[in-house]
Amino acid sequence: MIEVKHLTKSFDGRTVLHDMNAYFEEGQTNLIIGRSGSGKTVMLKCIIGLIQPETGEVLYDGRNILKMGKTEVNNLRREMGVMFQGSALFDSMTVLENVMFPLNMFSHDTAKERLARAHFCLERVNLSEAQDLYPSEISGGMMKRAAIARAIALNPKYLLCDEPNSGLDPKTALVIDELIHGITHEYNITTIINTHDMNSVMNIGESIIFIKEGFKEWEGTKHRVISSGNTALQDFLFASDLIRKASELEEQQAKNE
Asked: Which of 70, 74, 83, 252 is the most exposed place for a label (fewest CB within 10 A)?
């Protein structure tokens, strides 16, 4: 479980997070949604500890990361898996070497055990056949799966994903959604996902927070999204759906050419 209490963050005198409070359940896919510039990425970076807010607490099962020293933060990060927006794979490493990277950095297991764990993670995301390829040699969807394999390599208690479906076609995005959702439930992970993909919201949104201009505007589940009655949320859903349909139409036209 991760809990955020009274989080406030400003840049150059402009407040981008206003007294944010949130509770992210263990064993669930917890989504943070909102338009670009709404503050959701800043919030995720505060949760990870990459940005220090002016006020507030970020509690990992009661442990406040914002009050920890460097050693304590490093120890806590061994319990985290992080999936960045652009996958952030190392170009000079093979897929297998990318997955091995956190194991070599943080694990105290033997080399044989680390290799076995990396192979297991690649198998879990159906990517074993690509282990000897470099990021430039695989598709965007495969890169995302490799990033997930690396994120779960240390068997994390917490999984944090920033726009995991960015740049993917709807079919591949659905595969990534279901993979993250399945891993979350299988290993009882506290998963937080930043997204503006409405397909993700409706497919795996077990707990959803909608942020508008740095304020928590609404929270609920995918079953309550459509009937929320919140005007700002409905505007966001409508605009997102139009963008999605336009993207799908553009993709179909490209295939027909």
From this structure: 70
- Which among 16, 13, 14, 18 has a CA at the least distance from the CA of 56? 18
Q: 109 — phi, psi (to 5°)? A: -70, 165
Who contacts 12 (Cβ-Cβ below 8 Å, separation ≥6)? none
Residues written for the chain: 257
User: Tokens in use for 226?
Assistant: 């459509």
Pairing label, strands 63-64, 14-24:
unpaired
Pair 167, 183: CB distance under 8 Å: no
d(CA 56, CA 54): 7
Q: Is the whole-model pTM more than 0.90?
A: no
Beta bridge partners of 14: 11
User: Among 15-19, 30-34, 103-107, 145-149, whose mean pLDDT is lowest?
Assistant: 103-107
- Highest average pLDDT, of 42-51, 232-241, 247-256, comes from 42-51
CB atoms within 10 A of CB 97: 16
Amino acid sitting at position 135: P
Contact 168, 144 (CB under 8 A): yes
Close Cβ partners of 154 (under 8 Å, ≥ 6 residues apart): 78, 79, 81, 102, 103, 106, 107
In the chain, the percentage of residues whose pLDDT exceeds 70 is 93
pLDDT > 50? residue 243: no
* Distances, alpha carbon 144 to alpha carbons 86, 153, 177, in Å: 8, 14, 11
